[in-house]
Amino acid sequence: MTHIAPPAGGPSLPQRRHLATEIPGPLSRELFERRQRSVARGLSHVLPVFVTAAGGGVLVDVDGNSLIDFGSGIAVTSVGNSADLVVTRVTDQVAQFTHTCFMVAPYEGYVEVCEQLNRLTPGDHEKRSALFNSGAEAVENAVKIARHATGRDAIVVFDHAYHGRTNLTMAMTAKNMPYKEGFGPFAGEVYRVPMAYPFRWPGGPARCAAEALDVVTSLIHAQVGEENVAAVVIEPVQGEGGFIVPPDGFLPGLAEFCHRHGIVFIADEIQSGFCRTGDWFACDHENVVPDLITTAKGIAGGLPLAGVTGRAELMDAVHPGGLGGTYGGNPVACAAALGAIETMEKEDLADAARAIEATMLPRLRTLAEATPAIGDVRGRGAMLAVELVRPGTTEPDAAAAATVAKTCHAAGMIVLTCGTFGNVLRLLPPLVIGQPLLTEGLDILADAFAAL
Ligand code: PLZ
């Protein structure tokens, strides 16, 4: 196959949509054939274009197509792909040393990332952090810490929750297909309660705001017993489950309930954290201070890194040697995180996320008025979504969501779907995306809805 010499990635990549071939093009299709013969079937793709460069708000593929990126690799490249400060810090670190294992011989970068996490996460109490490789691993470790610190077993999670694909986190994740189907038996002592989901709460959003906290806390009381609960784990804005934003008051009430009963309140901010929702963390919106918070994705500009941060007395309850792993807090990933955090602060990317919301949300609301298939528009910052239903009902329409996504893909834009019922289109542009691409992306989306 003849490769086109790829352009250099990063912020200098031309910020334009350009279709050189159909999507996916012939070279991507050729690579896909190789992929089919070599890579396990269990891994699937949103869009099988093979990427050669990315930066700002675009991805460039082997066929020379330049696609608008409304996915950020699932909320990861908030600072953009190959952001300058990530590249320089990573390059310097790679040339210096690549690995010692923090448990064998430590290095400053790990400590510095923990200092930054302790400083940036909600609450000004004394904190400690520990670093891991993936979001699921961070969630597992948060649960380990909560169980160890409380001496209790039960973990409470929510409908529509997503916490990962390891055995414990599969048990915590709500949706069966594709995450859990055939992969059991699952870890025990995980209890699920309803999520405060305004659009789908029986009786509607007002009833949700009035009732949800009572429903959840009385279920915990009756079916688990507060004194048995080690932790309540919640995504303050749910991600994979459908970008579900609980009504104001729900999270503060839940945190207060946990506090009253000695339950560790764990916020899983793996998708919602690091400026995505227009604050450093989604919890900041209502000044909710979790006891433990899990982070990953946006933390390191695309390199694999995750963290658990929390109250010093909880984190330090675990005996020396009780936490760890070969690669957790790898020096190159830590260098990337320091570059990403510096970028977020210097460029005020929380403000950029609010500006993205200011551009997108009114357009999405207008689109919803003209489109009977749109049942709900929701989200915060650059974590926005549109839920598709059969017109005039709340019946989920996954096929319509898939059709709109496909139309966008063919037009040269990456959008992702999500939701327990697969009927939610989610919009997650990099926070550094320029206004012209954002507007063009919204035009493409509007056209795709018009063609529905
Ligand atoms: N917690 C809130 O969003 C990852 C999953 C993609 P890992 N979400 C993307 C997929 O289909 O596997 C996620 C999350 C929240 C935990 C996780 C898990 O993070 O880094 O994928 O393990």
Q: What keywords describe this structure?
A:
single chain; 452 residues; alpha/beta; Aspartate Aminotransferase, domain 1; Aspartate Aminotransferase, domain 2; 2 domains; 7-stranded mixed sheet; 4-stranded mixed sheet; 15 strands; 16% strand; globular; binds ligand PLZ
Could you say which small molecules are bound to this protein?
ligand PLZ
Give helix and strand order, one letter per element, not per position. HEEEHHHEHEHEHEHEEEHHHEEHEEEH
* Most strands sheet: 7 strands, mixed
Residues in β-strands, percent: 15-25%
**Low-confidence residue ranges:** none
Number of strands: 15
Helix tally?
Answer: 13
The level-1 CATH class of the largest domain:
Alpha Beta
**Straight-line distance between termini:** 36 Å
Helix content: 25-40%
Description of the structure:
- There is one protein chain.
- With 452 residues, the chain is an alpha/beta fold.
- The protein has two domains: 176 residues, Aspartate Aminotransferase, domain 1 (Alpha-Beta Complex); 262 residues, Aspartate Aminotransferase, domain 2.
- Helix content is 37%, strand content 16%.
Short structural description:
By secondary structure, the chain is an alpha/beta fold. It has helices spanning 26-38, 72-75, 84-96, 108-120, 135-150, 167-172, 205-224, 250-260, 312-315, 331-346, 349-370, 398-410, 435-450; strands at residues 51-55, 58-61, 66-69, 127-132, 154-158, 190-193, 229-234, 264-268, 292-295, 306-311, 374-380, 383-388, 413-414, 416-418, 424-427.
